[in-house]
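**Fold in tokens:**
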Amino acid sequence: MDMSRRGRASAQRLLRQIFDLMENGGYRVVFTRVGENSRLIDRHHVRMGHVGLHVRSPRTVYVDYRAEVVTVLVHEFTHGVLPDADEDEVQALHELVMSHISASQAKKILDFALAMGSRRRPLG
């Protein structure tokens, strides 16, 4: 299998894990101005310019609605799938996924996020 096919297979595997986490992980998605939200700045040390934040407890992903939302969601949920990965690893995997994602997969992520923003699933 050549590198391109291996990369695509890895991206699709990570996307399946992201979909599973979004569907079954008990997360909610909050759309806000992440880098301007004083509560996030104080509690999670968010800086100006940040467009996303993954919080393990309570299971929440914050997304700046002015940013490329699907890109931010993929990045932040990669943190959820791989909690021990450092920022450089997450960024590399995020870029891999974004280079192979289809329009229908992007729409599915956005649809999940919009539904998750309107309700809170029970943890566990």
